[in-house]
Amino acid sequence: MRTGDRTWGIIFGAVILLSIPACSGYSVERVSVDTSGGVTSRWTDTDARLTAKTMIRKVLETPWLSQFKEQHGRLPVVELGQIVNRSDQHINTRLFLNHFQDALLDSGKVVFVTASEAHRRQAEAEREYQMKHARTSTIHSPGQLTGADFLITGSINSYTASRGGKTVRYYETHLKAIDLTTNEILWGSQYQVKKIATQSSMGF
Q1: Does residue 104 carry a pLDDT above 70?
Q2: Distance between CA atoms of residues 78 and 177, nearest Å
Q3: Sorting pLDDT into bands at 50, 70 and 90, what band is 37?
Q4: Helix, strand or coil for residue 81?
Q5: What does residue 130 show for φ and ψ, rounded to 5 degrees?
Q6: 199: buried, middle or exposed (CB in 10 Å: 19+, 13-18, 0-12)?
Q7: Which residues make beta-bridge pairs with 196?
Q8: How far apart are CA 35 and CA 30, in angstroms?
């Protein structure tokens, strides 16, 4: 083989090798739970907002909030408890809770009190400071907190199945509202996000 032919052969082989990784493809699609078939199949901020929006619609469609207002003549006081992450990956449940709380507050149908220990400690420290330094008419003294009527808690679970270069991930969020007087569960609902990731070795 002549030198020129050998050189062109090396160049052609290098081009083929370099083009192979570029042909690989990875695609993700967010689909209905009832549908078989994004950038990632993992839980994202979009999933948190979508789940919160759906769960808000579900909680507002049920009668327990309006029934409480009719019986007591005031809005129910709600506290957000812990959302346990039982999925196979790290999920920032606080992100979901923030979306859920903001949307429920915007509905004007509930009053929220904080369940955060950090927030409670900060508020307590501020009240102690006021007791020492603020004018008497402006002091918010201890023992005046608003107690919650309901505790909303729940979990996020996941299920993953892989076959033939395709991975299916289910994320199921389940919430329930507990009456803090009776411990009765007055509302419960779940919402699923199904995502399919396809990894192909060649894009042809």
Answers
A1: yes
A2: 9
A3: very low
A4: strand
A5: -65, -40
A6: middle
A7: 29, 168
A8: 10
Which domains can be identified in the chain, with CATH numbers?
42-117+145-197 (3.40.50.10610)
pLDDT band, residue 29 (cuts 50/70/90): low
Order of strands across the sheet with 25-31? 25-31, 185-200, 166-179, 150-163, 77-86, 111-113
Residues 139 and 131 sit within 8 Å (Cβ to Cβ): yes
The crossing angle, in degrees rounded to 10, of helices 45-61 and 93-106 is 40
**Scanning the structure block, which residue is given the tokens 């950038």?**
39
Quickly count: other Cβ atoms within 10 Å of residue 64's Cβ.
13
Structure tokens at 35: 């549908």
Whole-angstrom CA distances from 192 to 79, 120, 183 are 24, 33, 26
Distances (CA, A) of 155 to 67, 79, 81, 83: 26, 16, 10, 5
The model's pTM is 0.70
Q: Cα 84 vs. chain centroid, distance in angstroms?
A: 11
Q: Does the structure show a pLDDT above 90 at 50? A: no
Q: What is the mean pLDDT of residues 176-181?
A: 95
Would you place residue 180 in the very low, low, confident or very high pLDDT band (cuts 50, 70, 90)?
A: very high
Type of residue found at 152: I
Tokens of 106: 């915007």
Q: Is 66 helix (H, G, I), strand (E, B) or coil?
A: helix
Average pLDDT for 102-130: 89
Distance between CA 77 and CA 131 in Å, rounded?
27
